[in-house]
Design brief:
Blueprint (H helix, E strand, L loop, with lengths): L3 E2 L2 H10 L1 H4 L4 H4 L11 E2 L13 H39 L2 H7 L4 H10 L9 H12 L18 E13 L10 E14 L5 H4 L2 E13 L2 H7 L1 H11 L13
Antiparallel strand pairs: 1-2, 3-4, 4-5
């Protein structure tokens, strides 16, 4: 503590009441020095605090708990971003392709000609912009899908990637009954969030979110031609196309 003047009242307190706190030697170890002026004394020895704390205890506590606090802080930030991105991916896969189907015009005569040109090897693929619109809905980078997301909520570990596949689903019955079939569109979406450096040893460098779902639609004409051999054959004959639909019951 250095050389500090001690008032006479405090000096008397140390001499008469401080023996228990300072040990058997009492004030002989606590008060060392020579008189400075009347009523004062130079103190050259440090008195042990009554609370029992040691010098450097705060430093030890900081060194012990600061890494734990930083680990907890970065964990909260990371899992917060991961959870929000996962919810955004689920929303994007459900609503992102609605614009594509609205603009695609699959329920039209053009779909019949497209199906005949595509051939009988399978149902028509998804529209080319379905996957792009789904991925863009995650970041809301396109107009009409809401305000653009702030960078904090966007995927930064791996870019958003979407896939789309179409298949048929049948409920049995004669193959010429078109209402027995439904079109199933399966979409998937993946994106990644960067993991903070302090967590990479536990979680890796990138946290991936994945969303997948399927939609059942009323069949467009091309899908009916694929699922129903008789309908496909008669449609091609009426339009003068050389089209051989798959035999059997490919849609179940």
């Amino acid at each position: 503590m250095g050389n500090l003047p001690v008032p006479r009242l405090f000096r008397r307190f140390l001499q008469h009441g401080g023996t228990d706190e300072l040990g058997d030697r009492g004030t002989d170890q606590a008060l060392c020095g020579l008189p400075n002026r009347r009523g004062d004394l130079l103190v050259t020895a440090a008195v042990r605090p009554w609370g029992g704390a040691r010098r450097g205890q705060a430093l030890v506590e900081t060194a012990l708990f600061l890494p734990l606090m930083l680990l907890a802080l970065f964990s909260i930030v990371y899992f917060g971003r991961y959870g929000v991105l996962d919810e955004r991916a689920q929303s994007a896969i459900r609503y992102g392709s609605m614009i594509s189907y609205t603009q695609g015009g699959v329920y039209s005569a053009a779909n019949i000609y497209a199906a005949m040109q595509y051939g009988p090897q399978g149902p028509l693929p998804c529209a080319s912009n379905v996957a792009n619109d789904t991925a863009a809905a995650l970041t809301q980078a396109l107009p009409n899908t809401g305000p653009t997301a702030q960078p904090y909520w966007r995927p930064d570990g791996a870019a958003a990637q979407a896939n789309c596949a179409i298949s048929g689903l049948g409920f049995g019955g004669p193959d010429y009954m078109a209402f027995h079939y439904f079109t199933v569109t399966r979409q998937s979406l993946t994106a990644g969030v960067s993991v903070p450096t302090v967590l990479q040893s536990l979680l890796g460098t990138t946290g991936m979110v994945r969303a997948q779902t399927g939609f059942a639609h009323a069949d467009p004409p091309g899908m009916i031609m694929y699922c129903s051999f008789e309908v496909g054959q008669r449609t091609a004959a009426a339009l003068g196309f050389n089209y051989t639909p798959p035999s059997g019951n490919p849609c179940g």
